[in-house]
TrEMBL record:
Transmembrane segments: none annotated. This is Extracellular solute-binding protein family 3. Keywords: Signal. It comes from Alkaliphilus oremlandii (strain OhILAs) (Clostridium oremlandii (strain OhILAs)). The lineage of its organism: Bacteria, Bacillati, Bacillota, Clostridia, Peptostreptococcales. Pfam families: SBP_bac_3 (PF00497).
Length: 284
């Protein structure tokens, strides 16, 4: 009798053990399914291309909306600029709406490759480092990295920045251009650059006297100086080098890249590009 009771208990114990293992197995299986689903969603996000964009009817363009005159908010809060006008014209010719997405500039490639945006088109300078992360169209505008100071300084060359507080936008090619001179940077005030999230903030600190120089895109800087009063500023004779603007897409977005390039070529041929260019840069 005792032996029979023990046998029943052992049987119940084994059954409970099996149920426990089954429960753990189901949890693990659900975890694997969720992980697989997440990976699939991520893979889909980073492989968005022209066909899917055409089906949904819009393309998402990432930008820093303080980057005048390429893409910025006017006094009415409207998004305007050279790149804005170019993008609208390009995609209007293929019946695709452009939706503009403000992004943190230092995170632009992450935003692109995670699928949150489809294009980086906002005074986006072509560089070898960036080419490792994105594909670029051929250049559509030339630029250089210039040194801007207040009018009463004696800064004319890169070496004149020694001992000075020098500001740039974080994640910009201005940062890369200056950091290409590490020995010079070590001799800046504090032994480093002063970083800002936007160029506007960098120029505001320059005007307030909290920094002594800003290195920035010439396209943006000259537009800013004109609006704030060119007589208050000076552009140094020496700069940090020439560069070119391109439009960045994911490396999986070959058809989108081809569409943008071909349409820009059409706009150059029919005079539309020059018309848009003239509306923003004719006086510079």
């Amino acid at each position: 009798m005792k032996s029979e009771r023990m046998s029943v208990k052992e049987s119940e114990k084994k059954e409970r053990g099996w149920k426990g293992k089954k429960y753990v197995f189901l949890i693990l299986l659900m975890g694997i399914m969720l992980w697989t689903s997440a990976c699939g969603s991520s893979s889909k996000a980073v492989s968005v291309d022209l066909k899917e964009i055409e089906e949904r009817g819009y393309v998402v363009m990432g930008l820093d909306d303080t980057f005048a005159p390429m893409g910025f908010r006017n006094n009415a809060g409207e998004l305007v600029g050279f790149d804005i006008d170019l993008a609208k014209e390009v995609f209007s010719r293929v019946d695709i709406e452009v939706r503009f997405q403000q992004i943190e500039w230092s995170m632009k490639e992450t935003e692109l490759n995670s699928g949150n945006i489809d294009l980086i088109w906002n005074g986006y300078s072509i560089s070898d480092e960036r080419k490792e992360k994105v594909d670029f169209t051929k250049p559509y505008l030339e630029n250089k990295q210039i040194i801007v100071t207040l009018a009463d300084t004696k800064i004319e060359a890169r070496d004149d920045l020694k001992g000075k507080k020098v500001a740039v936008q974080n994640g910009s090619t201005a940062y890369d251009a200056v950091m290409a001179y590490p020995d010079l940077v070590e001799e800046f005030s504090g032994g480093e650059l002063v970083l800002f999230d936007t160029n506007n903030e960098a120029f505001m600190d320059l005007e307030a006297g909290r920094t002594e120089a800003v290195v920035a895109d010439e396209v943006l800087a000259r537009y800013y100086l004109k609006g704030r009063g060119e007589e208050k500023f000076k552009v140094a004779e020496e700069d940090f080098g020439d560069e070119e603007y391109g439009i960045g897409v994911r490396k999986t977005s070959k058809e989108l890249l081809e569409l943008v390039e071909n349409t820009l070529d059409e706009m150059r041929a029919d005079g539309t590009y020059d018309k848009i260019y003239g509306s923003w840069f004719s006086q510079n």
